[in-house]
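Lab notebook, bench 4. The sequencing result for the construct came back, and we need a structural model before the next group meeting so we can plan mutations. Quick request posted to the team channel:

Model the 3D structure of this chain.
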Amino acid sequence: MNVTIYDVAREANVSMATVSRVVNGNPNVKPATRKKVHDAIERLGYRPNAVARGLASKKTTTVGVIIPDISSIFFAELARGIEDIATMYNYNIILSNSDQNKDKELHLINAMLGKQVDGLIFMGGDITEDHIREFKTSSVPIALAATVDETKETPSVNINYEEAAYDATKLLLENNKQIAFVSGPENTVINTEKVEGFKRAMKESGEDQPEKWMVTGDYSYDSGLEALEQIVEMDNQPTAIFVSSDEMALGVIHGAQDRGIRVPEDMEVFGFDNTRLATMVRPTLSTVVQPMYDIGAVAMRLLTKFMNKEEVEEQNVILPHRIIERNSTQQK
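Done. Here's the predicted structure in token form:
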């Protein structure tokens, strides 16, 4: 049988209201009485019912987090940032994996709201009108992490992906004329921004058809291997490849090495994200530093402001990025 607040009150010889005050941290309880209640709770193994407390306070102190793939190093780092700030503000996390499937994403949004979460952090790819409709009708605040809503109506935390891709391409152009770009899935705003950054830098260098140097991947290691196979078949083989994720860049490096192509001597490779993979591969990977942990942490802090009705100066936060050069590119 579950131990109830009534059992604790009887054991401590106090009222249920007193037990409730102790459990909820109300300071208006005498120290001796508080100790009696805590001793009774320990003896009986009582655990407060979070659902019942939530019904009474209209808060459950839980936040739903919808993530595309928890096995991804990128999203795991984001989730860690969310978790740490949630703990700091005394919130618990309910984490769900969406597989970046639209129907599953929409289902999970409604499932989370049905669990009476106090707020929701969403990470995904393509934000559609259906997503926006769910966000607008939500009874609790929602924030996006490393996910772009083109309407800017949903609070979000990102970097400037276009500028980051432009900076990386410009750096490669200092040593190379022919640069290939391995993009991510075509239907996402973030990928579109990266593509635009690559194109802008290439056009400034005099390349009027940057599209001919582009191949499409899906951010996975295997798609990096496949992308390398397409790139080496290009008429004028590139001497550098800019890859829109670190994991995909590892596939490119290993595919090149399997063919006897030396990195960076014969071909430079540049990644995006600066996950731990960037320092695990040999040669170590030059990459765009996207502050994944910070994006998650800032998104959670932004959400707490909305949940607690604090003042929010900017609901669409852009964090700084930077470039880190390692051994997969020629040292300047």
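The mean pLDDT is 91.
Will bring this to the meeting.
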